[in-house]
Amino acid sequence: MVQALFIHQNFPGQYRHLAPAIAQRKGARVIGLGERPNAVPPGPQHLRYPTPEGAGEKTHRYLRPVEAAVRRGQAVARALITLKQKGFVPDIICCHPGWGEALYLRDVFPDAKQLQYCEYFYRPAEGDIGFDPAQEVTLDEAARVRTLNMTQLASLEATDWGVSPTLWQRSRYPAGIRARTSVVHEGVDAAFATPDGPGTVKLPDGHTVTRGDEILTFVSRNLEPYRGFDVFMRALPEILARRPQAHAVIVGGEERGYGRMPADGRSWKALMLEEVGAKLDMARVHFTGRIPHEGLVALFRITRAHIYYTYPFVLSWSLVEAMGCEAPIIGSDTAPLAEVVRDGENGILLPFFDHARLADAVVDALANPDRHMPLRKAARRTMLERFDLHGICLPKQVALFDAVLEGRPGTDAIPESEDMP
């Protein structure tokens, strides 16, 4: 039977469902390799590679991510050589190419099939870079961004097939890579992300919120402009002023996320509270930090308005989970969010930088929950029809895995004529 290797610096990463599913096959041997464990699922054997050194201070700044990736690729290659010496030779390798782990796979295991995860290809326009009109994309910045892709291009040149979670994310890649990339989302467990469950949540600060309260939620791994945190905070004083019973629950860390930190070194939370904090009733603003997954889904079940904004970038799993819980989605009209949320059908989409319109939409959702119920029901239907883990996404992942393993063209590939621009 199959010997499979899954590589992700935060294993299992995007393989948290696929790797265990393959490991359940009779006679299969599945190894997950990563730098640090992250809720490792049962089934695969988990191994770690040593944390590599970063780039040198004298390295050209364009090349620092590339040098760090090379060092990571070397660390992975050394770990794989040890595995090979112990008799493990994979039939197929699944790997994320973004950090360098895939650079030397073909050199260590030349006969193994490869299925790589095409998450995001950087470009100096029509994506996250330059999306904020206040950000000037100089030639220097455009060159830096173009250089960021060197690691992925070297890795994907050697792969058999790729997979992207959304059409738009796939569309960012060069045509030759798109032609060998399927669109399959990781999926959401519909039995976990469900509106059914307790209607009461106790927050870390001791405050208890219920399904009957006027609760609005904002969730991001880190509170930062990439996910619209600054826009949300500028809308919040107006929302709380017009809805005196409303409470805002804000979930996320204060570390650096996808974008840059403020120039003075503070967190975006500190910066935005300095700007609007005096206008807020802080007794009704609850910053939770990061919370357990179960607590996050519990919030999705009781919120009256869930704000999900994003630069044109990668789609968060939390958005799909919120839809599964019938949370009323108020989002930004940006890719790839607009692939999932249709304005007026299963949520509301607004111009990203218009915080006044965001305030109006949230106030309406808080004041008229019954009127928003059809959107909430439609949001869950969308999740079930397109993102249900066990009914749709995992079977597609397994089918794609098998196709690549057997040397066939990947399943669910969309012809170039149907590709997004």
What report would you give on this structure?
This protein folds into two domains: about 5-185 and about 390-420, Glycogen Phosphorylase B (Rossmann fold); about 200-385, Glycogen Phosphorylase B (Rossmann fold), CATH 3.40.50. The model has no long low-confidence stretch (mean pLDDT about 95). The protein has helices at about 20-25, 65-85, 105-110, 140-150, 150-155, 165-170, 175-180, 230-240, 270-275, 295-300, 315-325, 335-340, 355-365, 375-385, 390-405, and strands at about 5, 30-35, 45-50, 90-95, 115, 160-165, 180-185, 200, 210, 215-220, 245-255, 285-290, 305-310, 330, 350. By secondary structure, the protein is of the alpha/beta class. Helix 8 (about 230-240) runs parallel beside helix 9. It is built from 15 helices and 15 strands.
SSE layout:
Layout: E1 3-7, H1 18-23, E2 29-34, E3 45-48, H2 64-85, E4 92-95, H3 105-108, E5 113-117, H4 139-148, H5 150-156, E6 161-164, H6 167-171, H7 175-178, E7 181-183, E8 200-202, E9 208-210, E10 215-222, H8 229-242, E11 247-253, H9 268-276, E12 285-289, H10 293-302, E13 305-308, H11 317-324, E14 329-332, H12 337-340, E15 348-350, H13 355-367, H14 373-387, H15 389-405
Parallel strand pairs: 1-2, 1-4, 2-3, 4-5, 5-6, 6-7, 10-11, 10-13, 11-12, 13-14, 14-15
Antiparallel strand pairs: 8-9
Helix pairs in contact: 8-9, 8-13, 11-14, 14-15
Contiguous uncertain segments of 5+ residues: none
Question: What is the oligomeric state here?
Answer: single chain
Protein structure class: alpha/beta
Helix residue percentage: 25-40%
Q: Could you state the CATH homologous superfamily of the largest domain?
A: Glycogen Phosphorylase B
Number of helices: 15
Give the N-terminus to C-terminus distance in angstroms.
41 Å
Sheet-strand content, in percent, reads 15-25%
Strand order of the largest sheet: 3-2-1-4-5-6-7
Give the rounded overall mean pLDDT: 94
Please give the domain count: 2
Order of helices and strands: EHEEHEHEHHEHHEEEEHEHEHEHEHEHHH
The CATH architecture term of the largest domain is 3-Layer(aba) Sandwich
Major β-sheet profile: 7 strands, parallel
Here the CATH topology of the largest domain equals: Rossmann fold
